[in-house]
Design brief:
By secondary structure, the protein is mostly helical. The chain is about 40% helix and about 5% strand. Among the domains are: about 60 residues, no CATH class; about 55 residues, no CATH class. The protein has 6 helices and 3 strands; from the N terminus they run βββαααααα. Helix 4 packs across helix 5. One of its GO terms (molecular function) is RNA binding.
Length: about 200
């Protein structure tokens, strides 16, 4: 049995009046026509005869190779025997009782492993650095005092620059405001080193 879309040159079996995708029908003589229709303004369009052998683009069937289509869709599905991810399971109503039980076991094992890792990690003690805050000036060598004084001068210079910005009306971050507040402390530490600054 042929349809108008597959063989437009031969009339369909008697009694079929379905139009093709382009709207082409067969009349009583077996000719292909586009039936008359009503325009939006109310006037009537004439019936148009379609010349024999013409197939409009809407009626041309697109060849689809099944092998090529399956090759293109190969990455969209799951491989045989694979289960959908947890989110997909929840969306489809969950899994079986056994899969839920296994999921709980996996979660418990992950928590246990995380706790063991936390226990194994030693707590790191802060490393002492040779600044005026960690060592008393009396315990420092001259070289350590110079190094500490250099670091304190740098911090003091930065704090004073930030103070000037603040006085000009610029907005400062909370960390920068803390540095501005510590200017007096930095000056006191530098004086405690006794290097004549």
């Amino acid at each position: 049995m042929s349809t108008p879309t597959s063989t437009p040159s031969s009339p369909p079996a008697s009694g079929t009046t379905t139009p093709s995708n382009a709207g082409i029908l067969y009349n009583a003589n077996g000719d292909r026509i586009i039936p008359s229709s009503l325009r939006p303004d109310g006037t009537l369009r004439k019936e148009i005869k379609v010349r024999p052998g013409y197939r409009p683009p809407e009626d041309v069937e697109i060849y689809r190779n099944r092998a090529a289509a399956s090759w293109k869709a190969r990455g969209t599905g799951l491989p045989p025997g694979a289960e959908p991810k947890e989110k997909e399971k929840e969306a489809t109503g969950g899994g079986s009782a056994a899969s839920k039980k296994n999921a709980k076991k996996r979660e418990a094992a992950k928590k246990k492993a995380a706790e063991e890792v936390k226990k194994e990690q030693p707590k790191e003690e802060p490393k002492p650095n040779a600044t005026a805050r960690t060592l008393k000036p009396e315990e420092m060598t001259e070289e350590e005092k110079e190094k500490a004084a250099k670091a304190l001068r740098k911090k003091l210079r930065q704090a004073q620059d930030l103070r000037e910005k603040k006085e000009k009306g610029e907005a400062l971050l909370p960390e920068q405001l803390e540095k501005v507040v510590r200017v007096q402390e930095l000056m006191r530490q530098l004086k405690a080193l006794g290097l004549g600054d």
